[in-house]
Design brief:
The protein is of the alpha/beta class. Helix content is 43%, strand content 19%. β7 and β8 form a beta hairpin.
Length: 371
């Protein structure tokens, strides 16, 4: 039995489970959603509000923090918890995705990755062991290893190479991690897109390494939904029952609840916060684009069924005015609403699993009824 994760309740009608991840900075009740704060902050919100909204943890990005402000600064101030003044759990993404997506010149080598900083073009070579060392300095509760990501659509040969390299780096990462004296957790990232033969290979190789949790990487990037869910279903059936399963970067509520039914425990995505800043709000009746002229004289709240600070106090007309005027408070109020909406749904998902009513919750979400 895992010391870092326990299943508390198993849904009787699906593979969904309600569980608990134990970390040095507190427990995380699952299914859980990690708001993305790549630079050590949830954009537009102070930590006090993020906590009030119900966030159990946040996600930071090792790549971004490594480049700015740099490990020397963070180490001097006592790690990322002290640096950003956040006393709850933190998960750090290794930055593998950003290395490939932000840098035009990436060279994958057996020993690591050579890339150019997206800030000033500086050439950097980083090994799997370096990525562990960076996250050791950060002191995050859950760290992720360096992995090799190939987007969809893919060439099978490239995907095969990515899976092999990811497994090799995973072994090196775990070996180096186990040499450290730390209470941090290291979760493995499986790759293989929707090519089941390769995804299965990746899962089997990573589970042999014995990580504290397992992520499904490289999904939700344009592949057909049927193949996406088929891959998730097959993956959770192979992954250990006593370890948390993390579906990386998936943010649409309908996708999340289906994944929960398939046994996924953990999610992160920029969707609620990025959309808030761009004026797209999620409500019990569907998406609302606040810049639309039809809201110019609308005295109603964003969502009459929502009890967040924004919905309790401000009209659609005012929120549209703030957005049109480029006011900072537009991003603040919109982000409060979207993040509240997401975290409240996750709370309801956990409650529904405990009461074996997840099917009913799913139906109400799908029909955009009151939830």
């Amino acid at each position: 039995m895992s010391k870092t994760f326990q299943v508390i309740t198993q849904d009787k009608n699906s593979l969904a489970r309600h569980g608990m991840i134990h970390t040095s900075h507190g427990n995380i009740e699952t299914p859980a959603f990690a708001p993305v704060g790549s630079q050590g902050t949830i954009k537009a919100l102070p930590h006090s509000i993020v906590t009030e909204l119900g966030a159990q943890l946040i996600l930071v990005n090792a790549y971004h923090l490594f480049l700015r402000p740099g490990m020397d600064v963070i180490k001097k101030i006592g790690g990322v918890h002290s640096f950003i003044s956040w006393d709850k759990p933190i998960l750090s993404d290794s930055g593998g995705f950003q290395i490939y997506s932000l840098s035009p010149l990436v060279k994958i080598k057996e020993k690591g990755v050579q890339f150019s900083s997206h800030l000033d073009g500086t050439k950097i070579f980083i090994t799997p062991q370096d990525v562990i060392n960076i996250q050791m300095v950060l002191g995050t509760d859950i760290m992720m290893p360096l992995d090799y990501f190939v987007p969809y659509p893919y060439k099978k040969q490239e995907l095969n190479e990515a899976v092999s390299m990811t497994s090799k780096w995973a072994g090196l990462s775990r070996e180096h991690f186990l040499e450290q004296n730390t209470s941090q957790q290291l979760w493995g990232i499986t790759q293989g897109s929707v090519e089941w033969e390769l995804r299965e290979k990746s899962i089997r190789e990573l589970t042999e390494i014995n990580f504290d949790g397992y992520a499904l990487g490289g999904l939700g990037i344009g592949e057909p939904k049927t193949q996406f869910f088929d891959t998730v279903k097959k993956s959770t059936s192979l992954l250990p029952q006593d370890k948390p399963r993390y579906l990386m970067g998936i943010g649409y509520i309908e996708d999340i609840i289906k994944a929960v039914e398939l046994g996924v425990d953990f999610f992160d995505c920029v969707l609620p916060t990025r959309n808030a800043r761009n004026g797209t709000l999620f409500t019990s009746e569907g998406k609302l684009v606040i810049k639309n002229k039809k809201y110019e004289n609308d005295s109603g709240p964003l969502d009459k069924k929502c009890s967040c600070y924004t919905c309790r106090n401000f009209s659609r007309a005012y929120l549209r005015h703030l957005y049109e005027r480029n006011e900072i408070s537009s991003s603040i109020l919109n982000t409060i609403h979207n993040l509240y909406f997401y975290l409240d749904i996750f709370k309801k998902i956990r409650q529904a699993i405990q009461t074996n009513s997840l099917n009913r919750l799913k139906e109400r979400i799908t029909r955009k009824e009151e939830i």
